């Protein structure tokens, strides 16, 4: 089960991001644990300066703006060696 945190103080984009992640997981039949993090100190602790931010299994994968459905689907996949591109808020490490 993937642990997903949506970082944000409660703005409309943060709420939309949370709903889209839940809908994508439901559509794929994937069980996820979702946590909403609203404490500014915790958000900054992840190094996220623009919200909404998304953390998947401890890795920041997105910051700023509503993520695309394609990005969310990639986060939910279990492909080995998966890496998040810079456009998804990742490091582009691959």
What order do the helices and strands come in, and which of them pair?
Blueprint: E1 2-7, H1 12-28, E2 32-37, H2 40-45, E3 53-56, E4 59-63, H3 69-76
Parallel strand pairs: 1-2
Antiparallel strand pairs: 1-3, 3-4
Helix pairs in contact: 1-3
What does this structure look like?
By secondary structure, the chain is an alpha+beta fold. It has a single domain (2-88), classed as 3-Layer(aba) Sandwich (Glutaredoxin). Helix content is 33%, strand content 22%. It has 3 helices and 4 strands, in the order E-H-E-H-E-E-H. It has helices at residues 12-28, 40-45, 69-76; strands spanning 2-7, 32-37, 53-56, 59-63. Strands 2-1-3-4 form a 4-stranded mixed β-sheet. A hairpin with a 2-residue loop joins strand 3 (53-56) and strand 4 (59-63). Helix 1 crosses helix 3. The longest helix is centred in the first third of the chain and has 17 residues, at 12-28. It is globular. The relative contact order is 0.21.
Summarize the structure.
Helices cover 33% and strands 22% of the residues. It has 94 residues and is an alpha+beta fold.
